[in-house]
Amino acid sequence: MRITSLAGRLQLVTGSGMVDVESESEGRFGPDPQSVFPRWSEFRSWAGEHGAASGDATASLPENPDLAAPVPRPAQVFAVGLNYQAHVSEAGRDRPDAPVTFTKFPSCLTGPYTTIALPGERVDWEVELVVVMGETVRNGRLEDAWGQVAGLMVGQDLSEREVQLRPPTPQFSLGKSFPQFGPTGPVLVTPDEFSDPDDLAISCAVNGEEVQSAKTSQMIFSVPEVIVALSAIVTLLPGDLIFTGTPSGVGNARKPPKYLTPGDELTSYIENIGTMRHTFTR
């Protein structure tokens, strides 16, 4: 199953396009995409009876600028750093013993096809797999984790490196939470749509030049391991987002460093989910 948001209204992706959920359900489910996650099991059952597409139906959807973030107002947004060994190496860090966690504030979320204002000259790209929780989870278990996931999305953990790394104490959450610094989409895809949700191709390009390419199976901490680690400390809620880390190839690690500039086009791709496309202005 695939869902998305069109101008803020929840849409079910079918083989022929998008269906407005409130209209199709005759008001059983409202138009607000966020409201469906506390009723996720009920919604999935309904969607299965009303034409939810299986297979890569996302490819038939146009790159509509009215497509918004599929999960617009999560209660919590977690992000994991240093979760690919090649990225750990390019950052000059030691391999972590547990997921390195920070937050992106929900106000930074935006859709898959927007123009983003650059607040400075050191804005970097970080393509990531984003997990959406479908259940309340506390002290989760590895064997249960995928069953507690509502779906997966493409994400960008855009990062203003000057603020993020400013001494004496780095400000990761602030440096990664400027307006529109959390693009997600273009759709949410349920885990059953993947032959192996732990092994997806992920890539990123700037102006057509590929800058990141990996497989999510290369993550140091898998999706279930991240869910278990987080839920051992905090309660994960339906609709919460987890940005699971970026592969190597970020601009800050290049010699010399390379950052996004006005007019750049950033494309972000994950296998069987789709592609996001963003342009930048000052």
From TrEMBL:
Entry annotated with the keyword Metal-binding: yes
Keyword Metal-binding: yes
Keywords on record: Metal-binding
All residue ranges annotated as the Fumarylacetoacetase-like C-terminal domain in the record: 77-280
GO biological process: small molecule metabolic process
Signal peptide: none
Origin superkingdom: Bacteria
One family name in Pfam for this protein: FAA_hydrolase
Gene Ontology molecular-function annotations: catalytic activity; metal ion binding
PANTHER family reported for this sequence: FUMARYLACETOACETATE HYDROLASE DOMAIN-CONTAINING PROTEIN 2A, FUMARYLACETOACETATE HYDROLASE DOMAIN-CONTAINING PROTEIN 2A-RELATED
Family that this chain belongs to: Belongs to the FAH family.
Name by which UniProt lists this protein: Putative catabolic enzyme
Organism classification: Bacteria, Bacillati, Actinomycetota, Actinomycetes, Geodermatophilales
